[in-house]
């Protein structure tokens, strides 16, 4: 991993906390409020929720604004829920809180927009900026250069490419970015300031790579090899070692080590709190099912769980039939199998509530790829590349696909492909903050009741 300059690392982890707490202090001063114990506790809570900060993923202005706003909404929602639960909302001046909540996302957006420019100039002025060149001007080299430019907190300035191919074959090399042929790289590194050299040549070019490494031994630059295997769609790729032999994880669950403990602890806390809150509602639903149609209250269906193992998933029965065979037809609009009371349950996803029991059992998570019937899995695993990768984690009651409009019936292959793409995106980018965002977004999605029948 790269060592970031101390200044850049400090700014990266503290920027969100500094801005959020700074805006809180500014709001308190603006309304001439005393900085009492309640505001100190609020500042400490904000610090715990924003430190260490993370760089927004959005590269465009619109994407940056969306990331900042989404993250801030999650933080505000958590603080409001905590304040309501502890009955401490009345200790704060409403004008201060409202001004702070509205002004902070604007300040965060401005800070993240301006910071890359300021940081780059500051590092250059202090002589802490590192110069990087790339050996290989293909697709991987181009993507690496773009990442370097888009990540100012690394403190790296990209100088250009070295490649033996002509400009007509290396379309990624822009004007002024071609520094010469590979054989000139060692000489350039000796006569110019080059701190980092990235080799992005194809692994099939082993003789050229070995020759280049031999030539670079007489330089002081740090050398990194980025194999073209990373052009593939990797899921939670990471380096490891077995008896000193380095291995690269091509497809791995994001829940290993401490992450697995965090995920399980959050599942237990969320499921316990939610079940305790909704138990009267679940009892009312059970009575309603019994009074409106014959049959059991709960419907048990086989689904694929972690690592593709079969599990039993609970749902409130919403149909007049109990289908769990080799061929299962998905529910469609005006499906005659759905009972009138079941249609109401499905519209607001109330039929899924017993799955919080599955979470406590350890079969499911609150957030994760939605489980499909075994019959549907067997069908789509043959039609969609990478379909079964979604089973590297426990299935969830809600997921990234569901809060992005991919809820309900998947009546064509393209819709299912889109759902799988979102599931895999969740695996790549998992964090506890993302889980909390999905939980909060689910509430609004369910209230809109789109595509559920």
The biggest beta sheet reads:
5 strands, parallel
Q: List how many beta strands DSSP finds.
A: 11
Poorly predicted runs: none
What pattern of helices and strands is seen along the backbone?
A: HHHHEHEEHEHEEEHEEHHEHEHH
Give an overview of the whole structure.
The chain is 48% helix and 12% strand. It has three domains: 6-125, no CATH class; 130-231, Rossmann fold (3-Layer(aba) Sandwich), CATH 3.40.50.720; 258-448, no CATH class. Helix 1 (6-30) runs antiparallel to helix 2 (37-50). It is α/β, with parallel strands linked by helices and 453 residues long. It is flat. The protein has a five-stranded parallel β-sheet with strand order 3-2-1-4-5, covered by helices on one side. A two-stranded antiparallel sheet has the order 6-7. A two-stranded antiparallel ribbon has the order 8-9. It starts with 5 loop residues before the first helix and ends in a 5-residue tail after the last helix.
List keywords for this structure.
Rossmann fold, 5-stranded parallel sheet, two-stranded antiparallel sheet
List the helices and strands and how they pair.
Blueprint: H1 6-30, H2 37-50, H3 61-86, H4 94-125, E1 130-135, H5 139-150, E2 156-162, E3 178-180, H6 185-191, E4 196-199, H7 206-215, E5 222-225, E6 238-242, E7 245-249, H8 258-292, E8 298-304, E9 310-316, H9 340-347, H10 355-361, E10 365-367, H11 374-380, E11 396-398, H12 413-429, H13 432-448
Parallel strand pairs: 1-2, 1-4, 2-3, 4-5, 10-11
Antiparallel strand pairs: 6-7, 8-9
């Amino acid at each position: 991993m790269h060592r970031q300059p101390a200044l850049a690392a400090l700014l990266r982890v503290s920027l969100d906390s500094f801005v959020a707490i700074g805006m809180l202090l500014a709001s308190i001063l603006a309304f001439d409020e005393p900085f009492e114990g309640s505001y100190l506790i609020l500042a400490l809570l904000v610090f715990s929720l924003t430190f260490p900060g993370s760089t927004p993923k959005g590269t465009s202005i619109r994407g940056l604004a969306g990331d900042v706003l989404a993250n801030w909404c999650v933080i505000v929602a958590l603080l409001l829920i905590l304040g309501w639960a502890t009955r401490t909302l009345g200790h704060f001046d409403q004008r201060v809180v409202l001004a702070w909540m509205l002004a902070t996302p604007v300040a965060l957006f401005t800070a993240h927009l301006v910071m890359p420019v300021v940081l780059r100039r500051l590092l250059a002025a202090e002589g802490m900026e590192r110069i990087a060149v790339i050996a290989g001007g293909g697709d991987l080299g181009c993507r690496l250069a773009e990442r370097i430019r888009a990540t100012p907190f690394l403190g790296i300035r990209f100088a250009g490419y070295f490649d033996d191919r002509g400009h007509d074959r290396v379309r990624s090399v822009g004007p002024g970015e071609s520094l010469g042929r590979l054989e000139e790289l060692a000489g350039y590194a000796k006569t110019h300031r080059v701190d980092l050299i990235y080799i992005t040549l194809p692994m099939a070019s082993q003789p050229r790579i070995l020759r280049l490494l031999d030539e670079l031994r007489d330089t002081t630059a740090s050398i990194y090899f980025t194999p073209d295997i990373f052009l593939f769609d990797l899921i939670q790729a990471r380096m490891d070692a077995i008896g000193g032999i380095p291995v690269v994880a091509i497809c791995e669950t994001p829940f290993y080590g401490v992450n697995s403990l965090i995920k399980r602890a959050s599942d237990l806390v969320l499921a316990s709190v939610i079940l305790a809150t909704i138990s009267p509602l679940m009892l009312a639903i059970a009575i309603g099912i019994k009074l409106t149609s014959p049959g059991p209250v709960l419907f048990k269906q086989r689904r694929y769980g972690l690592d593709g193992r079969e599990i039993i998933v609970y749902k409130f029965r919403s149909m007049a039939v109990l289908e769990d065979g080799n061929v299962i037809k998905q529910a469609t609009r005006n499906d005659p199998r759905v009972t009138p009371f079941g249609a109401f349950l499905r519209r607001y996803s109330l039929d899924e509530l017993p799955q919080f029991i599955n979470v406590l059992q350890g079969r499911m998570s609150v957030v994760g790829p939605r489980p499909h019937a075994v019959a549907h899995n067997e069908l789509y695993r043959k039609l969609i590349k990478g379909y079964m990768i979604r089973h590297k984690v426990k299935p969830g009651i809600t997921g990234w696909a569901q809060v992005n409009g991919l809820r309900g019936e998947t009546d064509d292959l393209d819709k299912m492909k889109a759902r799988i793409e979102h599931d895999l995106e969740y695996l790549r980018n998992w964090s506890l903050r993302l889980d909390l965002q999905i939980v909060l977004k689910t509430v609004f999605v369910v209230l809109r009741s789109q595509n559920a029948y």
